[in-house]
Amino acid sequence: MPSALSPAVVFDPERGLHIRQVSRRPAGPGEVEIEVRAAGVCHSDLHIVSGDWPSDRPLVLGHEAAGVVTGTGPGVTSVRPGDHVVLSWFAPCRRCRRCAAGQAWLCTGTKAVANTLPDGTTPFTDAEGEEVWPYLGLGAFTDRLVVPESAAVRVPRELPFGVGALLGCSVTTGVGAVVNTAGVRPGESAVVIGTGGVGLSVVMGLRLVGADPIVAVDLSPERLAVAERFGATHTLDGARDDVAAWCRRELGGVDYAFEAIGSPKVVETLPGMLASGGAAVLVGMAATDATGSFNLFDLADQGKRILGCNYGSSVGEIDIPKLARLHLAGRLPLDELIGVTRPLSEAAAALDDLRSNTGVRTILEP
Ligand SMILES: NC(=O)c1ccc[n+]([C@@H]2O[C@H](COP(=O)([O-])OP(=O)(O)OC[C@H]3O[C@@H](n4cnc5c(N)ncnc54)[C@H](O)[C@@H]3O)[C@@H](O)[C@H]2O)c1
Ligand SMILES: [Zn+2]
Ligand SMILES: [Zn+2]
């Protein structure tokens, strides 16, 4: 039996952003039914609304969420009804070569990026019987979901749902960029450009591993003040300061330059910030057709590296519980990343919060 109708935040190429009533079908084999308790609003939702990542079909937005398991389909063994879970938006297939090699973030068999469940279907139908598709295989801006088992990661019950939501995307991506993608060591230097939910998580990850100095760059003084609280030792204004010249003059170049915006213009400036042997880490996601150019002689001559970073090079079932434990042990102040909490009906305002680059992460509650 499909569930009763309930409101979902939908983006449709024709109608734009709106609230639509949807029902969801029960969990099939290998699937899990979830009641969403909190969902963060990430720039990757805004990329859909702004058209950076075009979609040809209606999508239930939302991919950074936590909730409770309410039912399981045949064959599910890792979670039970009542378990608290963080939803991972890059549900790995667990069968491809990358998955077999322990690199789930590079899975080539996942259907999440095609905005479907693993069997190519959607759990959502609207009142007219039209199918509505789950963004990144989740569609978490509604109250009830069906997700693949590999997307539902069990976490301790004492973890607050808002913090759990952030573990679904920004924190796992940002901290993972530091510890997994880059492998930053104590005393190495780093600059982080763009200190939204993802960039602030990079800053927190850098403090966790003992990086120093940690230079944060943003256009918003409010965001930079938060970055200082999270461990930035220096802050620069991205509109006013020449960050590459500053890094070379003051630090002789940095070991790591993290970009957490998705701006081709900013990415092109990263190699100029690096010391020889340093690495630029591309965490921000640009438009799907974006290109950039670098001085190739400088890259080769100075042994500089460019590292792509999908989902913080994380394996959800390993890294999400690890980060949850670090938070509960007082080592990662993830609650301080949470700004305003709004009801789902205020999703449009929540996306405006994100566009205005103020405050910290907005959480939606169904
Ligand atoms: N790699 C991944 O797997 C992954 C996961 C999640 C999000 N992302 C991407 O990361 C990016 C950031 O996401 P977010 O949710 O933190 O976004 P956000 O909008 O909260 O933060 C972006 C920040 O960049 C700042 N900024 C914009 N232009 C700037 C400039 N020229 N110089 C300095 N600062 C500038 C803004 O003021 C803002 O604070 C997005 O592109 C998102 O799609 C990537
Ligand atoms: Zn995200
Ligand atoms: Zn795979």
TrEMBL record:
The keyword rRNA-binding does not apply. Keywords: Metal-binding, Oxidoreductase, Zinc. SMART domains: PKS_ER. This is Alcohol dehydrogenase. Residues 16-364 form the Enoyl reductase (ER) domain. It comes from the Bacteria. Pfam families: ADH_N (PF08240), ADH_zinc_N (PF00107). Its cofactor is Zn(2+). PROSITE patterns: ADH_ZINC. The keyword GTP-binding does not apply. GO terms for molecular function: oxidoreductase activity; zinc ion binding. Belongs to the zinc-containing alcohol dehydrogenase family.
